[in-house]
Structure prediction request, 226 residues.
Amino acid sequence: MRVVLSIGGSSINPDGKPDINFLKGIAKVLRESKNEFGIVTGGGSVARAYANAARELGAGEYDADSVAIIATKQNAHILIAALGDIAHPNVPMTFERARLAFGKHRVVVMGGTIPGITTDSDSALLAEAIGATRLVNISNVDAIYDSDPRKNPNAKKFEKLAYDQLIGLAVKSDKRTAGTHFVFDMLACKLISRSKIETHFVSCKNLKDVANAIEGKKHGGTVVKA
Ligand code: UTP
Prediction:
């Protein structure tokens, strides 16, 4: 089956340089699985630094996003390097190209696509485009909580959520102060809901959870399904 992974930039590049151990670890998980994978990599702090620099230099939001997209593609390339011959060697620019890239290779890795969205939405769109019914979101957050666990020690972790509940949480967090953002953006929530894509939220620090989520097995994160 086809599975889409959305890998946050902070998982690939947590502190200004690529995390070789994470890249080797995720590559091993993918090599040991029999599935086909469509992957979208985020840009993390590198994307944010370049977008902010562009803004300080006078660029508008379209161009700030455009430079951030390049950072997401840099992470796609470094992941391809870790995957070796199971991955298509190029980073497709569009979902149509990604769809065509399967065949000789069972893993296709892409970055962002157009300004104005995020790689959360790219991953949901890629899942729709390639007919994947499962999406695994890998980030430095281990699950979805009812409030920010870093601020609230009593935050409740959700094992399972329905699509409407996820959208409710995303709406609630939209109203929070600037700078805080929900683990999955609203457009992405709406896309997985309309196509009923089973979506798992797991931590990049727990590759056993990642492997279980890929196979649709139980893990310590959150699963969103009907
Ligand atoms: P993301 O915000 O999706 O990366 O893309 P990330 O590393 O997963 O982000 P965190 O970890 O949630 O913070 C980085 C930036 O690239 C631009 C946006 O500016 C986005 O904030 N981008 C990405 C686009 O403009 N279009 C895309 O399709 C993807």
